[in-house]
Specification:
The structure holds 2 protein chains of 2 kinds. Chain A is mostly helical. Chain A is built from 9 helices and no strands. In chain A, helix 8 (about 190-200) runs antiparallel to helix 9 (about 205-240). The chains are: A mainly alpha, B alpha/beta.
Chain lengths: ~240, ~240
């Protein structure tokens, strides 16, 4: 048993410096996850902001050119969210690689953008839900004090919404991390692809795949724990 | 000071305000009563355009608020509003609640804003609560803070939307006492309330709203002692 483990470990990680493949894969997975999360958050903020402003313009039945533009942008954003959530990520990744960014040499950047654009749709929904969770009376109080729409959002609504947004956003980050495991589809060596490459060499699927799973699990478990602590701290600040 | 001409407000197919004309002079204290659903809160909320009228004009100090070119934020600085649900900002301390808008508008320096806030808090006997969060205050305290928060902006008129309806009975008195004080100082106000005794005592004019129109109006004594409108008589017989 111990012998089998030793030989498996040797074959998978040590022989021919195979651990380097894992390190490379791990590095790419982390890079893609972080970059995608950042892109996703930026897109999510913009989309939810457009939605929020367009909605309040609609409520006031504004017909100014600005309101019309906002409305069109909001429609585009709605379509974007629907498409991102309504099609498989693997297909989105391939469309990004072979059509939208066809011929772009750095496939890692393509991955960052594909996952980021996808994640942006989910993040925008998270932010939208967080804003909607804040009592409308807060907005009315802000507006009645002469604070502008954006000022009210920034000073009054968002600081309260963040409590609901942050944990959900972290969970979205965890989802992105796991989703990056399809990078191999376009021959980017991420953690999963690295394991797969080694598996095809060692002919022992057991050790490589379990190893990869364990590495993912440690990453995800660690992140989840961090999110849990964050949630508890935010809940505490609720009670003041 | 406030001129409302031909004001109509629809919610979907329902016409909540039907061609309202109302003129409020400086120094007047107009109390609006009526059954629920009669449109009294909507009328009040149209005065600072928290509700956008479907048609008609709201003119405040010569400025037409319903004109799309009017900068509502500037106008709202001169119109304080107090809500049924207080709407203090839960993520800000009492002092921050008070200074947020004056500082946002750069009406005064931070030190001046703080000084004004502390003076107002002292006036309502809550100076010792300056650095606590709203959740630690009683309902009556919250509403009194909400009132002085609006006063901190130096408004020319105060709009009260059922200021005591969400309070426990034993806290109604302290809030009414503060409003009475403002009345004695000569503040112009419009008050939607169910407190008939208070309406009679503080109001210079009482309006009875029923089914989206001002069905009766008079100075308080005649209004309550000799109601001519049969619906008003019926309403008063139920609430008095």
């Amino acid at each position: 048993m111990i012998e089998a483990f030793k030989s498996g470990f040797y074959k998978t990680f040590i022989r021919d410096n195979r651990y380097k493949v894992f390190v490379q894969g791990f590095r790419n997975t982390v890079i893609i996850t972080i970059a995608a999360a950042v892109i996703g958050i930026l897109i999510g903020i913009v989309v939810s902001l457009i939605h929020s402003l367009a909605q309040s313009a609609r409520n006031k039945k504004k017909k100014t050119p600005g309101a019309v533009i906002l409305n069109v942008l909001d429609k585009i954003c709605t379509a974007y969210v629907a498409v991102m959530r309504g099609t498989p990520l693997a297909i989105q990744l391939m469309i990004m690689t072979f059509i939208v960014m066809g011929g772009f040499p750095n496939k890692i950047i393509v991955c960052c953008i594909a996952f980021g654009v996808n994640s942006g749709a989910y993040v925008s929904e998270v932010i939208r839900g967080g804003i909607a969770s804040v009592d409308i009376g807060q907005t009315e109080a802000g507006r009645s004090l002469g604070i502008s729409e954006l000022g009210t959002l920034r000073l009054i609504v968002l600081p309260q919404a963040i409590k609901n947004i942050l944990p959900a956003m972290c969970n979205e980050g965890i989802a992105v991390l796991k989703e990056t495991s399809i990078c191999g589809l376009i021959s980017v060596v991420d953690l999963t692809r690295a394991g797969d490459l080694i598996r095809s060499r060692t002919m022992s699927p057991y050790f490589t795949l379990i190893s990869v799973a364990i590495i993912y699990f440690i990453l995800v478990f660690g992140l989840s724990k961090a999110v849990g602590r964050l949630e508890r701290r935010l809940a505490q600040s609720d009670r003041h | 000071m406030i001129d409302i001409n031909g004001l109509c407000k629809d919610f979907g197919d329902l016409r909540v305000l039907k061609n309202i004309d109302l003129h409020i002079d400086k120094g007047e204290r107009v109390v609006i009563i009526g059954p629920s659903g009669s449109g009294k809160s909507t009328l009040l909320r149209c005065m600072n355009l928290l509700e956008t009228p479907t048609s008609g004009h709201v003119i405040f100090e010569g400025i037409d608020l319903t004109d799309a070119k009017t900068d509502l934020d500037t106008v709202r600085c001169k119109m304080g509003m107090v809500f049924q649900q207080f709407n203090l900002f839960p993520h800000k301390t009492i002092l921050e609640n008070m200074t947020l808008a004056p500082r946002y508008h750069k009406m005064m320096s931070d030190a001046e804003a703080k000084e004004t806030a502390m003076r107002l808090l002292g006036r309502i006997g809550l100076a010792d609560k300056a650095n606590v969060y709203p959740s630690t205050l009683s309902g009556g305290q919250k509403q009194r803070v909400a009132i002085v928060r609006a006063l901190a902006m130096g408004p020319d008129v105060m709009l009260f939307d059922e200021p005591t309806s969400a309070l426990d009975p034993e806290m109604v008195g302290e809030v009414l006492a503060l409003i009475r004080e403002l009345a004695d100082d000569g503040m112009t106000m419009a008050i939607v309330t169910h407190e008939m005794g208070f309406a009679r005592e503080v109001g210079t004019r009482v309006l009875f709203m029923d089914d989206g129109v001002i069905a009766a109006e008079n100075e308080p004594k005649a209004f309550f002692d000799h109601p001519e409108n049969p619906r008003l008589r019926d309403f008063l017989s139920k609430v008095l």
